[in-house]
């Protein structure tokens, strides 16, 4: 690894020379800005990063970074990233995908990358719409949503990225949001630090085809009521005056008002390190408008990694005697004709 | 026939023959593939030329005794050079009525049929569709039929074995094999060794199989029914060290060799599919060569993964069969646009759709050529025989890395599963594969789509400082590789990509012919039909006809002299296991008509079929 | 619907004339037998059933039933079944798939069928191996499993069908087993009765390539310790003498001995109707050997169905005035040229 | 130029012209598509013949003012029959420097250029790559340039509007449109109506847009700069009732009509992709026709779903573009094996890979023909123009259901998005589509693969008592449809399936020519090149050359008389927006060489390009 001078990298060192082609006001800009901000902090030179994306507005992302990149085909980024990472485990590999790219056509690759738990970071820009194809509903669109392809309202029950990721036993799962730049940056840092597949859902506003989809979580007036910021080891508290909390009633979360009988200690405490993902799953089911939506790191645990396990096997095999071409050709029963 | 193993053994007369084709047939669970492989090995070690043809049903294990469940293995061993497993068989070993029924037609008149008499009971006869017992009526009168109570004799031989009855019965294939060993005077050594090492963990099984094998052998020796042995002398093959090899195995070894020769790490991303899975199996054992195998979730992921691996600097290879190739199409297109070195192995099987998954066919040529959106050419090459898979694998990797392009290898089920002796090459004789990666720059003026004399773009690897660049599926700007919607650039790039593939023609050997340089007829083949074509042509040549054979290893681009060669003959005959795909391409490409000979039965050509067609064509009026 | 005589149907009326081509001893036989047994009870004539499968040993299933059937291509059965059901909602549509067919190549279609919740039944025969292609590891194979394609042991963390199904918010999820014929039959009945996508994982022994994979759950000696039969509204009890139970400790299940301090009432009670799937998810994480594995119905709730919602929209639109070809052609601005 | 809207309006002289091609160009967000569509509608209603060509970038909205973000819409309106949007434009309306720069080349010498003067500031000039302001140097001297401060004038017109400044600015496209309306003497009525109904919920917006439109119109009327108006008289089209229609819309309506004509329910399973998504959008609005639209998770699921729906008795249709067609390949193979009626719409775009997603191309013909594993033929047809999409949709459904086969429709981006007047057909004139389903049986002797005279198998529906059967991807036994590995059966079925497709040739019209029945040159086209070819041929015909045009709607099988027709001409020229795919197929199929004329720039042919090539070919030596 070339170490020369990378400790003085700045965000601008990660900017490519390409014109950015998102609509003015698109949430993607902010995600790009935060990414460029945190990358220099990771202690790796620009050339060690590879960004892989599929197709969609979000998937334009790699062009705007001065790293290596693949803007691939629709839905396949996790599979391509698997090849990149296994091909050269020395690289820091990032997948950028959309709710259509990652959960519709690419759902299977996403799940399989997650379950293999190889050391890549997957950023899913969820704008609950197909942006690039100009506004059809996506797998994360709400039931009843009217779009170009659902003029009478969508009849597809939506998928929830975090629930699916936990169903696939993800070792790192988090949610953050385009406009919450500090939290976004911090979440990206956490994802980068995780060893294994880090899955991050990023709420992203598509101001052209689905404007305001996450207003409930971004609007100053209401966001404190509608979101809940997870902190490891801390109770689940939210509200403008942090006056409300989440308590467990059997297996069900319920909203309670703090004060009076109810103390912080009665609340559900977040444990991102819980070996069992059941808590994380339960959190993933807290959804607007019934519940405040948890933001932050749902789960962060260690588990065997596909990439390192494979390398271990190779190293073990080579330790017993590295392959020689000569032997390979002459294997098995041979005979000589004079 | 009454078996009598008690009498003292006496040496029987030995009849020397040039060649024998033996077929084992029985239930899928009867171990027929194993018998075949063992006889193949011992014949190969003995020094015969060999060629094999395993033939199994699509079911893992269809109902015992059913026609659908019959599994066969044919081996041709010979004292002269051979190129096919043989049109018909000199000896059929049929372990049950269904096996007899489905195979008897292929036995030479006067040929040997050994049946397991014990299995010819009413139930199984009926299952096989026999109204009367063929062992008892006249229907087999033109063959030499040996009714051997193989089950009983095996049980007798193993009466002291601690194994359970079911396990004992499973040894009957070794009995049959022993008998065949005796019949052709084969040494049991290699099989005895194999048994001891294979079942090392279970001494009872070693013991039982050993006993069964020997019992079969001694039965032949002693039983008065068998009047003489056969002997197929060693073949006079080119000198050198040999081993027996099958197509998939050779392909796997070839890929590992290509990685070694180029100093690259082999990344094999694949999803299992018959008949390509064995390549994955073989490579997954090669961790000591640093081979990375990735069993992907599907073919699309497999193809995508090798694009990623190739971008990262590995030698990216995937393997599949027809339906899988269809699924890979879109990602292969990305490979074409990103101009990465990628090798795609397609082991063809009977189509369309799921088709005949365990049978062979050559029906994916057009798919390989055109099965992608847009103008999207790749290089296509095809092996001629099992051992040629080794060379073709190296060649594919060489071309892929030299020209920065996807290369499709069109193997087929017949080649993949067939075996033949392989003259082990000297390492020095293998092609050198030079790979250069650009070494870093200042990050500004690197041109990821600048081309060298071969029109290949640089293979710049992530991790290299200053060469950061982005690739993708949108049209690339010439030189810079930036996304570019410029109309002129698009046309230029389409033509450049096509020209790059065409340029490969300058880098590959010219087409050569076997036989007269010009004449009445050229028989042109590609892929696994090579052996049958060659043998058929040799036969008609020997009867004085002006016929030559040529084999096309390169299907896109064609060798530069293809047209010149073809035009030197009055007629050109193209036998193919499809409806005439190469013929169609040649018409389109060269505006030249040829005569098609097509078989789409899931089976390879017989030599006699091609010979017959050649004679027909020769006798038909002139003109194409 | 033809009703003539279907109330006297027998299992044999559901048998086709095709030879069955599974290996002797294969677990598929028993599943076929139970299916033939319960189908006549469903009150529909044979011609109203459509069985759709992909490719694999298990996917041979439709050939052996005298119903309509599609033995399709690898992994796509849920998508084909979606077309069949939406095409004719009058039909009883069943998907038969394997762990490779349904979770490897077909994982995405499976998830999307589940989330759309259309009224089909999905039977996943899990033998933890690729049978038809002769023994490669599958997405449900254990870490470290040695197979033809993993001679040094698999390095892929497995997927758990029920966890994934719950991640996709399945409305009906159950697990049963080939050799437990009564339970199998009963589970199939329950699946058939559910309105919405019913997902059933069936443990199935592949005696040729993965013999004994589920011995822990079938062997007389140990099965009572290793499995736990779920009953709605009942506490989670297991063991040879029903002496053990599952108690909730925070969000974690723990095994406890009944008797002494611990009463049945202290145990976790099963609630298949719980609106929140968190309990079902938690149960799906109870795995051998740490826990007894829950068998039976994990979840059974009602939710909007894709097929009926789509029909409702159509009916509503037609009620407002069914489309007329004449109008369609003459829509929008028109003008006349004389 | 100083704008002066205050002066009293005076009627200006009107110059009558035969035809005008107007192009609006601006930022993606500027509403240029809307201007184009409005002018199209009003011209159509007025009675001109029209043809349009929208051209937009791959980005939703690239940076304002950038070259990459320029969106254009060209409309050709005429007093005689036209078949293309026009090679060059008589008037360009450019809302910013980038729009001017990327479009100015296409303006006729002496043509009109109207620019929004306000946008020619330093920043935007630089963004567009202008070193100096073209409005101020000599570079535009050969055009009639009108510098109109469109932004300022719009703001002035809306100074009383309660809308915010940004919203006001967005109205400038209506100002531009109004100006063009005046210039060509168009009635504003249809647009005014459209504004009121489109923005009905926001009266301020209605008001603002109305004012802007009128302001533009009055500006033309009053401003001294414009010296005269143009008038393009009505065209003499065949009598009848007309509407304006685009290709995707016509295709959607055609599918609904086919469903009505056949009494089947339409099931459209699709995954969005440019430029095919609009078909999904259009059909999802047709619930009152019982249309079921299914937005699948991907193209494979979409294709699979229509197989299921067709099995259940619906008319199963899917739509996609090149990369999606690649993904559907395997499932289309299943459609071939199961012999179900399926229609696959492929709206071609620039390839390979993601290529040029918003641009047109004809590069999927070979993929449509051969892009599947095994011998796997389907029927392929292609529309000639936007309105022909209606007829082609019906024809595809008719063939699919009559012959029980997948049918691929090869549309393209140019046809899909282009618009033209459509003579609304009488319902009685539409083809009848008769569909018969077998009606039940005793459950034993039903033969799902028995064929009728057209070689079609019966379409037996689940739910029908006694007809239970199983279909699938494994080879089918003739008649019974059971899984069958028999070698002879396989070959028979491969040939039967192929023959069935060939039989379609007897059911389709013969190829007709436009022009002399024989002669020096035939120009043969397929798909969206039809209009340009026809116009070019008419031009050279009118100068006395012996040239004819022919259009191939059926690409597999070809019309029975294709070869006979082609051979009646000394030369055949095939213009294609690819490297010569039809030409290659014709060589392979008919052993006949033709002359290719190929353009792969993501753009349709200009009439003049084809005309030029025709003249070249005519003047070249004879011989093919
Ligand atoms: C194989 C294929 N199918 C379909 C498309 C068309 N397509 C491009 S992007 C996209 C969806 C984009 O949605 P999402 O992933 O949510 O990204 P966004 O644009 O919203 O960021 C689709 C359907 C394609 N490019 N390739
Ligand atoms: C596109 C495609 N890829 C691969 C295959 C090969 N294939 C057939 S079945 C199968 C897996 C079978 O495993 P599973 O679904 O678990 O079924 P089982 O045989 O174990 O019942 C595979 C990989 C295929 N038929 N088609
Ligand atoms: S369409 Fe939406 S997601 Fe795409 S660039 Fe524009 S605002 Fe962003
Ligand atoms: S291979 Fe296994 S799953 Fe397949 S039929 Fe045989 S026992 Fe059953
Ligand atoms: Mg999106
Ligand atoms: Mg399995």
Can you tell me the CATH topology of the domain at 6-213 and 304-310 in chain A? Rossmann fold
Which structural class do you get from the secondary structure elements of chain A?
Answer: alpha/beta
Bound molecules: thiamine diphosphate, iron/sulfur cluster, magnesium ion
- What composes the largest sheet of chain B? 7 strands, mixed
Radius of gyration of chain B, in angstroms, nearest whole number: 27 Å
Low-confidence sequence ranges of chain A: 1-6
Distance between the termini of chain B: 58 Å
Largest sheet of chain A: 8 strands, mixed
In the residues of chain B, how many domains can be counted? 4
Q: Name the poorly predicted regions of chain B.
A: 1-8
Which CATH architecture of the largest domain in chain B would you pick? Answer: 3-Layer(aba) Sandwich
Strand content of chain A: 15-25%
Please state the overall shape of chain B, judged from the principal axes of the Cα atoms. Answer: globular
Labels describing this entry:
heterotetramer; A: 338 residues; alpha/beta; Rossmann fold; eight-stranded mixed beta sheet; B: 624 residues; Pyruvate-ferredoxin Oxidoreductase, domain 3; 4 domains; seven-stranded mixed beta sheet; six-stranded mixed beta sheet; 23 strands; disordered N terminus; binds thiamine diphosphate; binds iron/sulfur cluster; binds magnesium ion
């Amino acid at each position: 690894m070339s170490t020369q001078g990378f400790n003085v990298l700045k965000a601008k060192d990660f900017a490519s020379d390409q014109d950015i082609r998102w609509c003015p006001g698109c949430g993607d800009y902010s995600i790009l800005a935060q990414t460029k901000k945190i990358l220099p902090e990771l202690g790796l030179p620009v050339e060690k990063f590879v960004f892989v994306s599929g197709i969609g507005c979000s998937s334009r992302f790699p062009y705007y970074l001065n790293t290596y990149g693949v803007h691939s085909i629709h839905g396949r980024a996790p599979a391509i990233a698997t090849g990149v990472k296994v091909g050269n485990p020395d690289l820091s590999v990032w997948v950028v995908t959309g709710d259509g790219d990652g959960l519709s056509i690419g759902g299977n690759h996403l799940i399989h990358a997650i379950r293999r738990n190889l050391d890549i970071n997957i950023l899913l820009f969820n704008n609950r719409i197909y942006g690039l194809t100009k506004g059809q509903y996506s797998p994360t669109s709400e039931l009843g949503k009217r779009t170009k392809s659902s003029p009478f309202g969508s009849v597809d029950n939506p998928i929830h990225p975090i629930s699916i990721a936990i169903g696939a036993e993800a070792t790192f799962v988090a949610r953050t949001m385009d406009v919450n730049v500090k939290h976004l940056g911090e979440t990206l840092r956490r994802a980068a630090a995780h060893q294994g597949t880090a899955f991050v859902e990023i709420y992203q506003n598509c101001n052209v085809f689905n404007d305001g989809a996450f207003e409930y979580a971004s609007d100053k007036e209401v966001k404190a009521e509608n979101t809940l910021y997870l902190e490891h080891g801390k109770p689940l508290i939210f509200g403008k005056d942090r006056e409300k909390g989440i308590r467990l009633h059997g297996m069900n979360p319920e909203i309670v008002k703090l004060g009076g009988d109810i103390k912080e200690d009665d609340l559900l405490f977040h444990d991102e390190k819980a070996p069992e993902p059941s808590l994380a799953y339960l959190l993933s089911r807290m959804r607007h408008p019934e519940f405040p939506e948890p933001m932050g790191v749902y789960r962060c645990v260690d588990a065997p990694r596909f990439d390192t396990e494979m390398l271990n096997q190779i190293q073990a095999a080579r330790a017993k005697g590295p392959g020689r071409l000569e032997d390979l050709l002459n294997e098995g029963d041979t005979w000589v004709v004079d | 026939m009454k078996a009598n193993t008690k009498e003292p053994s006496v040496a029987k007369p030995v009849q020397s023959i040039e060649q024998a084709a033996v077929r084992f047939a029985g239930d899928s669970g009867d171990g027929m593939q194993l018998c075949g492989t063992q006889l193949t090995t011992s014949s190969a070690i003995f020094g015969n030329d060999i060629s094999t043809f395993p033939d199994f049903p699509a079911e893992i294990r269809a109902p015992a005794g059913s026609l659908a469940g019959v599994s066969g293995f044919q081996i041709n061993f010979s004292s002269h050079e051979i190129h096919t497993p043989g049109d018909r068989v000199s000896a059929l070993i049929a372990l049950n009525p269904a096996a007899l029924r489905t195979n008897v037609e292929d036995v030479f008149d006067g040929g040997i049929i050994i049946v397991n008499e014990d299995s010819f009971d009413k139930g199984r006869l009926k299952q096989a569709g026999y109204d009367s017992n063929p062992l008892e009526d006249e229907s087999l009168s033109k063959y030499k039929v040996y009714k051997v109570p193989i089950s009983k004799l095996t049980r007798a031989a193993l009466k002291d074995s601690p194994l359970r009855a079911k396990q004992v019965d499973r040894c009957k294939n070794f009995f049959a094999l022993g008998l065949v060993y005796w019949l052709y005077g084969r040494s049991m050594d290699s099989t005895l060794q194999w048994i001891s090492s294979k079942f090392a963990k279970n001494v009872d099984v070693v013991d039982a199989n050993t006993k069964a094998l020997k019992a079969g052998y001694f039965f032949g020796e002693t039983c008065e029914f068998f009047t003489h042995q056969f002997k197929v002398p060693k073949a006079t093959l080119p000198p050198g060290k040999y081993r027996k090899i099958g197509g998939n195995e050779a392909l796997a070894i070839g890929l590992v060799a290509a990685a070694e020769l180029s100093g690259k790490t082999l990344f094999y991303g694949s999803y299992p599919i018959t008949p390509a899975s064995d390549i994955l199996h073989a490579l997954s054992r090669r961790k000591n060569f640093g081979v990375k195998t990735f069993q992907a979730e599907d073919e699309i992921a497999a193809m995508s993964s090798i694009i990623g691996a190739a971008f990262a600097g590995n030698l990216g290879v995937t393997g599949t069969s027809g339906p899988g190739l269809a699924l890979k199409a879109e990602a292969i297109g990305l490979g074409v646009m990103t101009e990465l070195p990628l090798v795609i192995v397609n082991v063809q099987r009977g189509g369309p759709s799921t088709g005949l998954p365990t049978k062979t066919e050559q029906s994916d040529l057009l798919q390989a050529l055109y099965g992608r959106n847009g103008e999207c050419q790749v290089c296509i090459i095809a092996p001629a025989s099992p051992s040629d898979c080794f060379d073709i694998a190296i060649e594919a990797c060489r071309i892929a890395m030299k020209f920065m392009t996807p290369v499709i290898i069109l193997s087929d089920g017949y080649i993949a599963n067939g075996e033949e002796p392989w003259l082990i090459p000297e390492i020095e004789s293998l092609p050198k594969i030079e790979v250069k990666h650009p070494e870093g720059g200042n990050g500004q003026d690197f041109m990821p789509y600048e081309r060298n004399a071969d029109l290949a773009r640089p293979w710049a690897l992530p991790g290299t400082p200053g060469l950061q660049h982005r690739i993708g599926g949108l049209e690339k700007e010439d030189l810079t590789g930036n996304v570019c919607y410029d109309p002129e650039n698009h046309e230029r790039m389409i033509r450049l990509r096509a020209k790059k593939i065409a340029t490969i023609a300058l880098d590959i050997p010219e087409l050569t012919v076997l036989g007269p340089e010009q004449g009445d007829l050229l028989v042109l083949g590609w892929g696994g039909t090579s052996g049958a074509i060659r043998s058929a042509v040799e036969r008609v040549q020997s009867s004085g006809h002006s016929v030559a054979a040529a084999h096309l290893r390169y299907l896109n681009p064609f060798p530069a002299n293809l047209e010149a060669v073809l035009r030197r003959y009055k007629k050109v005959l193209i036998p193919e296991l499809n409806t005439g795909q190469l013929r169609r391409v040649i018409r389109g490409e060269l505006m030249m008509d040829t005569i098609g000979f097509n078989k789409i039965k899931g089976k390879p050509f017989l030599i006699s079929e091609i010979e017959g067609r050649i004679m027909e064509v020769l006798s038909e009026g002139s003109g194409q």
